[in-house]
Amino acid sequence: MMAGKAGLIVGVANQRSIAWGIAQTLRNQGATIGLTYANAQIEKQLRGLAPRLGVEFLAPCDVRDDDQIKAACDGFAERHGGIDFLVHAVAFAAGDELANGFINTSRAAFVLTLDVSAYSLVSLCRHARPHFKPGSSVLSLSYLGSDRVCVGYNLMGVAKAALESASRYLAADLGADGVRVNVISSGPVRTLAALGLPSFREMLEKRASQSPLPYNVSLADIGNSALFLLSDMSRSTTGSIVWVDGGYNIMGSWSEADARAGAA
């Protein structure tokens, strides 16, 4: 499904990240993939992982730096003749900012988190735009906390809401170029980033029992949905939030505890 397509994935941190699952799926379907790293620690991880994906392009890209973003997009496009797809899988919020309640969010933390987690998508699309081919696709990753209050998600929920809104405006701007922009909002997955959330383990345990499909999603589930959105199969889909969460997002406040109380 992806033979002859080449794209850049921004945000692979390790082999447990959602972006890694997406990269594996795309590679298995014939895609040529480039990766970026934000710092030396991630670079070391990726240099060990890159051969497993046949990656030939690996570039520094601190998404707070527009010059690095431009260099990564220009460099990849020069090497591979353009950009067919772009995956944004970048988010950051300091752990103490998530744990202390949203009302206590500092101005500095707010600015940094929105910059890294949301504005970076805008900058990536702007600098990739000259290299996008007609039919190209952009994908970013979100979570239910963008739309509802999720305990412990706090500032990151606001950042994801901004990311989703930005994706819709980008879809409008890039549509005339034949470029699609979509978002996957997935259920919780055991990534290193997610394990930093104060209530993540409890969230994971409860989520499956409260979803129409009674299991937690896997990296492969998310990768398969990403494959659809990044391939020509989704040529008429843009500006959308695609839920990959077992249907949890359609539920109200129902839980097993609520059901037992009602039965009593």
UniProtKB/TrEMBL annotation:
Which EC numbers does the record give?
A: 1.3.1.9
Q: Which reaction does it catalyse?
A: a 2,3-saturated acyl-[ACP] + NAD(+) = a (2E)-enoyl-[ACP] + NADH + H(+)
Q: Where is the signal peptide?
A: none
**SUPFAM superfamilies the UniProt entry points to:** NAD(P)-binding Rossmann-fold domains
Give the record's GO biological process terms.
Answer: fatty acid biosynthetic process
**Which CDD domains does the record cross-reference, listed alphabetically?**
ENR_SDR
Keyword Lipid biosynthesis in annotation: yes
**Which keywords does the record carry?**
Fatty acid biosynthesis, Fatty acid metabolism, Lipid biosynthesis, Lipid metabolism, NAD, Oxidoreductase
Tell me, what is one Gene Ontology molecular-function annotation carried by this entry?
enoyl-[acyl-carrier-protein] reductase (NADH) activity
Keyword Amino-acid biosynthesis set for record: no
Listed pathway(s): Lipid metabolism; fatty acid biosynthesis
Q: What class of enzyme is it?
A: oxidoreductase
> Which residues bind substrate per the record?
A93
Query: Where does the source fall among the domains of life?
Result: Bacteria
Active site positions, chain numbering: Y143 (proton acceptor), Y153 (proton acceptor)
For the ligand (NAD(+)), the binding residues are G11, S17, I18, D62, V63, V90, K160, V189, R190, T191, L192, A193
In which family does this protein belong, per the annotation? Answer: Belongs to the short-chain dehydrogenases/reductases (SDR) family. FabI subfamily.
The name of this protein is Enoyl-[acyl-carrier-protein] reductase [NADH]
